[in-house]
Amino acid sequence: MLRVWLFLCLPLLLGAENISGRWSGSIVVDDNAGGSPITTSVRAEFQQKANLVSGEIGRREDEHKEQIRNGKVEGGKISFEVTSVETTSAMKFSLVLEGDRLEGEMKGTVDSGEIVGKVRLTREAGGHGGN
Question: Domains of the chain: which residue ranges?
Fold first, then answer.
């Protein structure tokens, strides 16, 4: 029985891309007051071990980045949370891996209410990591 299970799961294990490494891109948030969307350049560094993800993410220009918590990989889907002094709850990220791109959504709350952003990250050249 174990052999059958391993045989069935092997393609999933071999096909899983490791997201470890440096990534950069942007988060675009619509302005709730009706203004132009707000685009923030970000940089992230992920460490993946099996299906767990850790690391940090933050504004490209900031030296201090926020720690990633509760990170996990399920197939091509990556999810994690980030807490900042600027937020009133954890920002929850739900991303999909497509080659060297991660795209998806960030949701959370700030003093002015709920915030939703579109996240687009690209693996930096030489930014590949390993298990």
Answer: 18-125
